[in-house]
Amino acid sequence: MIKTLFVSSEAHPLIKTGGLGDVAGSLPRALARANCDVRLVLPAYPDVLEKSRITGMKAISEFTVLGEPVTLWQTRLPGTRVLVWLVDHPYFSARPGNPYCASPNQDWPDNHLRFMLFCRAACELAMDRAGLNWRADIVHANDWQTGPLPLLLNEEKNRPGTVFTIHNLTYRGLFTWDAFDQLKLGNDYWHFEKLEFFDYAAFIKGGLVYADYLTTVSPSYALEMQQPEHGWGLDGLLRSRSDRLVGILNGINTDEWNPGTDQSLAQRYNRNTLKRKAVNKAALQEALGLKVEPHVPLLGFIGRLVEQKGIDLLLQVLPGLLKSGRIQFALLGSGMSHYEASLTELARSYPGRLSVTLGYSEELSHQIEAGADLFLMPSMFEPCGLNQLYSLRYGTPPVVHNVGGLKDTIIDADANEEEGNGFVFPDATAASFLSALERALAAYTDGDRWRKIQLAGMKADYSWDASAEAYRDQVYRPLLEA
Ligand code: ADP
Ligand code: GLC
């Protein structure tokens, strides 16, 4: 058994703001199946404590980091046997709401202190200094919030191997000199080969510079991030570490995202009963105030309303399509206020055809995946993307930009008649997006062909097992054998 400390700032269903939550909520369980003895470490946010109290939790340790007392709670990831360790400090337990920000456009001002404390606590756990008689072989950290952890471990003797997974290079955890100074890391780290990044301290560099292995969530993104266009100033560093950088595609939780058993749906269906999907379309149209028109293609979008997700392209192509009366559109998301305002405004112009739901809803996200005919992901970049995988499983062919994980998972149905499972556009322009959409809408009118495209997506295997084995065999084992 490989003792693996998996450290993340979120994990579904305890706490989730995006795909990292999905991954940290599923990969540890798959690693356990792949012969790893996993402990998942999370901050004890109020929501997490509340949910864990219901399933059962107990305090298993108290220790201090730089004089700050921390309580460690042990619980299990709901619905699994995975052991979860919750790092309890008022930085987390006294901050309800979003884990990272006080309001949508305003981060908590002390995030540097909060996540440094989290990393220091995880370091104590990894080194078996919290009296738990469990010492990690591998510490697997994720995204900027855990970036300093490989750095801290690098200072230890007889330390575990360290792995840092990049889920999104644009979130780098940037803090000023004054904030850096409060971390008590030592001024040596303020150096461009260490944490310093254009006059800021970048938490992500703790992982990029010091982890033994770097991974990211698709093979294509592993290549893209080494190029200036997608490297966000870190491409040089990533190139210098390319011998230790591995792209491993995410899986999905196939229990939760299964149209055959999904409790959120008006009508469950599978490959053999695909016709029943139409019931979900009608229910969604009804619920969202769209006209119940079975033959008008219903397009879906779910996601954070940020530049990455290609909202600008959506806003460029939607008006024309809506005006023509050829489509309906259902959007669920939240994010930047200017996008929220533009979408709301557009929805006012097309009642019955465009539905915009601002906010976060697990249930509606499942209903859109099942009820929509087509799913749109015009992302500018996409490290992996999970919604296109959910869409494939729900028989809702995606239209995607040819980047990152979208490129690695979607096969264009016009280019490959046998295996095509969606539609891919090459350029991040409205014209390129629109032309793929037109191709998708044309295919939709041909029932047999459409069904073939749906089935190509539904029959593939997107479970986590292959990815967990790749982490074990391509990253953990080589580290242990080194
Ligand atoms: P990212 O991590 O960049 O946001 P992913 O596609 O990897 O993108 O994952 C996003 C996850 O968050 C998916 O599970 C998606 O369904 C979910 N999600 C995003 N926005 C919402 C929302 N408003 N309501 C419900 N789920 C959402
Ligand atoms: C990030 C990326 C997304 C990826 C997710 C999980 O948030 O934006 O593409 O699927 O992490 O790895």
Tell me about this structure:
The chain is of the alpha/beta class and 482 residues long. It folds into two domains: 2-251 and 464-481, Glycogen Phosphorylase B (Rossmann fold); 271-458, Glycogen Phosphorylase B (Rossmann fold). It is 39% helix and 21% strand. It has 19 helices and 20 strands. It has helices at 19-33, 46-55, 90-93, 111-126, 148-154, 177-182, 203-210, 219-224, 228-231, 235-240, 277-288, 311-324, 337-349, 362-371, 387-393, 404-409, 430-444, 447-458, 465-481, and strands at 2-7, 36-43, 58-65, 68-76, 83-88, 101-103, 106-107, 138-142, 161-166, 174-175, 196-197, 200-202, 213-216, 245-247, 298-305, 328-335, 354-358, 374-377, 398-401, 423-425. The strands form four sheets. A nine-stranded mixed sheet has the order 3-4-5-2-1-8-9-13-14, with helices on both faces. It has a six-stranded parallel sheet with strand order 17-16-15-18-19-20, sandwiched between helices. The longest helix is centred in the last third of the chain and has 17 residues, at 465-481. It is globular. The relative contact order is 0.11. Adenosine-5'-diphosphate (ADP) binds at residues 18-19, 22, 302-304, 332-334, 360-362, 365, 384-387.
What's a concise summary of this model?
The chain is of the alpha/beta class and 482 residues long. The chain contains 19 helices and 20 strands.
Query: How many domain modules?
Result: 2
* Global structural class: alpha/beta
Question: Beta-strand percentage?
Answer: 15-25%
| Total number of beta strands | 20
- The percent of residues in helical segments reads 25-40%
